Amino acid sequence: MAKSELYKAAGVDIDLATTLLDRVKADLGAARRPEMLAPIGGFGGLFQIDLTKYKEPVMVASIDGVGTKLMVAAMMEKYDTVGCDIVNHCINDISVQGAEPVYFLDYIGIGKLRSPLYEQVLGGIAKACKAANCAVLGGETAEMPGMYGADFDLVGVITGIVEKSKIITGEKIRPGHVAVGIASNGLHTNGFSLARKILFDHDKYTVKTYLDELGETVGEALLHPHTCYYPAIRQAMAEDLPLDGIAHITGGGLYDNVPRILPADVSVKFAPSALPVPPIFKLLVREGQVGHQEAYRVFNMGVGMVWFVPRTAADRALEIIRGNGFTAEVIGEVVPGDKSVEVAE
Questions:
Q1: How large is the average pLDDT for residues 22-47?
Q2: What is the torsion angle, in degrees rounded to the nearest 10, for the CA atoms of residue 131, residue 134, residue 299 and residue 154?
């Protein structure tokens, strides 16, 4: 049967997948780079490294998902922002090591393929990749009835390149360095299991509940797309700013992410109140009676990324970050220690 009627009856519609992909091919095609050697659609994506740009190129790769933020998107029936989320989260994860994002691949696992979910997710991916000059090299959509039910999962894989001599490792962080915090716009892609329990199970809000303290609905506050900080990192590296360490503040918050880059003999004392705490976090902490330490471990609490620079470079770091449209403040200092993190109330 040309139309795969038996497969369709079993829950997988091959023709629908082709139709929906055709709707977003133009957007995906705009998220490309000249190093791509073939259009999307082959069994493998081809990408030729421009060796004139590097002496010792090092590939940096990462994989991540959006988590249960997808459930909020489903409640809102709005899926474009989660496409941006997965791209920006992945870009941040490799840019903390100094890597330029060069290509991205997505995976969508879903019980039943449907519109406009598919086009909105891929459209968000294409938009975020184009903004970062990162090519969409390919992807996979797996329709699996009986596996996911009405839910779906979204995963991203990113590859970047960094000159070996410019890899940012954190090993140069010393006592006297300062921590420059860059503001987040909300939960980004972490802490949603606790947020959903507090807001939907305990408080009985819906995504359509408008709260004056948020200035928007609960759903809108939760779906703010993950901020991409790469433009500021790119400029700092181009200027040879002594950017000695960067931490992307994701699951685990300040307490768990910062020690990943610290040398064994230093610790960090944070006073994050210099940065604004988005209203959604104040609501979650109050309604969920979340303690201070747990709040800064589960959520980013308004700090999306931390740069570690010598104190003499702090002013220029702030200028670069703010010049790229982000809010930033010095929120901590490095002291002798044992890789521990202290967050003042």
A1: 83
A2: 110
Sign of CA dihedral 100, 158, 30, 230: negative
Give me the percent of the chain exceeding a pLDDT of 90. Answer: 85
Nearest-10 Cα torsion for 287, 293, 295, 297: -150
What is the C-alpha separation between 64 and 70, in angstroms, rounded?
Answer: 13
Question: Helix (H, G, I), strand (E, B), or coil: what is residue 141?
Answer: strand
Task: Report the number of secondary-structure helices (H) and strands (E) in the chain.
Answer: 12, 12
Structure tokens at 227: 């901020």
Digit-coded pLDDT (tens) for 4-27: 677 677 777 777 877 877 887 787
Enter the tokens of residue 327. Answer: 């809010």
11 neighbors 23 (Cβ within 8 angstroms): no
Structure tokens at 141: 């959509």
Helix/strand/coil for 146: coil
Q: Is 270 left (phi over 0), alpha (psi -120 to 50) or beta?
A: beta
Q: What are phi and psi of 37, to 5 degrees?
A: -100, -10
Residue 14's CB is within 10 A of a number of other CB atoms, namely: 13
- Is pTM beyond 0.85? Reply is yes
Buried b (16+ CB within 10 A) or exposed e, 189-203: bbbbebbbebbbeeb
- Rounded to whole angstroms, the Cα distance separating 187 from 239 reads 31
Do the Cβ atoms of 161 and 94 come closer than 8 Å? no
> In 3D, which of 300, 304, 305, 188 has the Cα closest to residue 243?
305
Strands 152-163, 100-110: parallel, antiparallel or unpaired by DSSP? antiparallel
DSSP state of 202: I
Share of the chain above pLDDT 70, in %: 99
